[in-house]
Design brief:
This protein is of the alpha+beta class. It has four helices and seven strands. It has a domain of 70 residues. Helix 1 runs antiparallel to helix 2. Bound molecules: zinc ion.
């Protein structure tokens, strides 16, 4: 897997990313420390397997760390790649709203990360204004990833970021995905509308 060249990213973005990771690591560490403290206070001797009590407390701490601090995303390695294909297909789910089968358009982005098999991202974000059951996918209407794009994914982020977009032959203004929260933005933005973090451009 091709690793991104971290040093080539803008300094303001690197700084934002470092803060983001530090907060998540520290937050998770506090949760695990709290779990360790709880284990010294709780009496598991009434349980059939007292060690299971400790395991349970740490499992809850890990689950909380994933929900609150996206700890699981920190375990996904960083990569860099080139978009080779962008496609869309309809996915029919058995349980939609009001019990009807839900239809949604999925956007599939195929990325060459220098491995034998291409990597495929399946993307969906519902349009809050439109009815969710209509299955409108913001990744299709905003089209933030294009064929030929260089994508950079850094450990802990929610989405890969388009990097090095200079010349565009796009009909409309190119759009980007905030790698921290998934909000869409145009090139002139320096910070995200939704999460306020410094963006890659
Ligand atoms: Zn954001």
């Amino acid at each position: 897997m091709k690793k991104p060249d971290f040093a080539s990213l803008p300094a303001s973005f690197r700084e934002e990313y470092r803060r983001h990771i530090l907060l998540r690591v520290l937050g998770s560490a506090v949760l695990f420390a709290a779990a360790a403290f709880l284990c010294t206070r709780l009496d598991f001797s009434a349980l059939r397997y007292p060690a299971m009590g400790i395991v349970m407390v740490f499992a809850v701490a890990a689950a909380l760390a994933c929900i609150l601090f996206r700890l699981h995303a920190l375990l996904r390695p960083s990569w860099q790649g080139t978009v080779t294909e962008v496609g869309a297909f309809e996915r029919i789910r058995s349980t939609g709203t009001r019990g009807q089968p839900g239809r949604r358009m999925m956007v599939e982005v195929t990325v060459d990360r220098g491995e034998k098999k291409p990597y495929v991202l399946s993307l969906f974000r519902a349009d809050k204004i439109a009815d969710g059951a209509a299955g409108v996918n913001l990744f299709q209407t905003h089209a933030p990833y294009k064929e030929g794009d260089t994508l950079v994914y850094l450990r802990g982020l929610r989405y890969p970021a388009r990097f090095g977009v200079t010349v565009t032959d796009e009909l409309f203004e190119p759009e980007f995905v905030c790698p921290f929260c998934g909000e869409f933005y145009t090139m002139e933005r320096k910070t995200c509308y939704r999460c306020g973090r410094t963006l890659l451009f």
